[in-house]
Design a protein that fits this description.
Helices cover 40% and strands 9% of the residues. The protein is an alpha/beta fold.
Length: 392
């Protein structure tokens, strides 16, 4: 200590002071590094970065890489980890289930919505029009509203359920304009005309009505006269037929008349003479088509095994039928047998190609009449061959 040389502070060489400053900076950096190492040792080690992940931060040897889009499954896993934490077990995320909307409750029926209420209202309106006279009747006495709502409703059960009528060739009746339907006639009572009328009314796509030409006897009976007029029937004369055809109506005629209606059961389905061909002359004058019609099943409803001519003269009838049930069983014997019917409308025979004076040609009328008759007869035979039974 005694030999030590005391050097004043201001007299220290500059080189020594510079070396001391550099040594001081080195000691400070080493102490900072030591403290950083100690702090890093006390903290838990961070997971090593994935090889696929690029090193963060700029530096030598580090290149910036484009970020890879995460897959949907990875995104869902990361979201689940963030929601429940790294140490918790993954809980499945509930998927919302669509709840079906409740069906609207049906509205309570209001008065007037039911079919019965509607029918009752229509019936009351119909009765009101009947009482007040607010309905239309044409020049022949035809009441369309009464026929559609009352008369057809009364005949239809007999047509559908009792005789079980099968209709063929209804498309041969034109949809508009006049036409003349010519049919065979049989059955002791003229039920075949009524069934043919219902067949056209219920099956024709255009909803056409058949206007029948009836014998004089029909309009001489007290109650039948009014009902026939209301249903659209008229006298079987050329004048009435021409007036109906001029108006574009479908006219039905049965040229056999009482000869076909009252023939014996042994002559069933054999056509009688078609008169003098007056219906052909009427069709030629107006140029309307002639539609042949064949009816099978009507011959057997009243098997006529005899004819009491004496009673027929006393009563003013063309014949008085005797059947296996009538008059032996009284009113019960007048019940027709439930046979199976078939009504077929054949292909129309056009008449519009003839000149107006053709209606006065007797040879032409004879040929057309025979053509219509032969077509009806041929169709009758064909339907009889196809029929399985009289009742089925």
């Amino acid at each position: 200590m005694a030999d030590a040389k005391v050097i004043p502070f201001g007299e220290e060489p500059r080189s020594r002071r510079a070396g001391r400053r550099a040594q001081g900076r080195g000691s400070k950096s080493s102490s900072a590094a030591a403290s950083a190492a100690a702090s890093s040792a006390s903290e838990p080690a961070s997971p090593s970065p994935s090889p696929s992940e690029p090193p963060s931060g700029p530096g030598p040897g580090r290149h910036s890489l484009a970020s890879v889009p995460e897959q949907p499954d990875a995104v869902e896993d990361r979201m689940a980890g963030e929601k429940h934490g790294p140490n918790d077990a993954p809980v499945p995320v509930p998927v919302p289930v669509p709840v079906p909307e409740p069906e609207p409750e049906p509205e309570a029926p209001r008065p007037g919505d039911s079919s019965w209420d509607r029918r009752l209202a229509e019936g009351l309106a119909f009765l009101r029009r009947r009482v007040t006279g607010d309905y239309e009747v044409d020049e022949f006495g035809y009441d369309k509203e009464l026929t559609d709502q009352v008369l057809m409703s009364l005949i239809r059960p007999l047509y559908e359920n009792y005789f079980r009528v099968e209709v063929k060739g209804i498309e041969n009746i034109p949809s508009d304009g006049g036409a003349l339907v010519v049919s065979n006639h049989s059955g002791t009572l003229p039920l075949d005309g009524l069934m043919m009328q219902v067949a056209v009314h219920d099956n024709h796509p255009a909803g056409r009505h058949l206007r029948l030409l009836a014998a004089d006897l029909v309009f001489m009976l007290p109650v039948v006269n009014e009902l026939a007029r209301k249903a659209g029937h008229t006298l079987a004369c050329a004048e009435d037929a021409e007036r109906l055809l001029e108006r574009g109506e479908i006219v039905g005629v049965m040229p056999e008349g009482f000869k076909g209606l009252g023939k014996p059961f042994g002559e069933r389905y054999k056509l009688q003479r078609f008169g003098r061909g007056g219906f052909v002359s009427t069709a030629l004058r107006h140029g309307v088509p002639i539609v042949p019609c064949s009816i099978v099943g009507a011959e057997e409803i009243y098997p006529m095994i005899g004819n009491s001519k004496t009673l027929a003269r006393l009563l003013g009838f063309p014949y008085f039928p005797i059947t296996p049930t009538f008059p032996w069983l009284g009113p019960l014997g007048a019940l027709p047998l439930p046979t199976k019917w078939t009504i077929q409308f054949g292909e129309p025979i056009p008449t519009d190609g003839y000149p107006p004076e053709a209606a006065e040609d007797p040879m032409l009328m004879f040929n057309l009449t025979d053509q219509v008759r032969e077509q009806i007869q041929h169709t009758l035979y064909k339907l009889l061959v196809q029929r399985r039974s009289v009742f089925f």
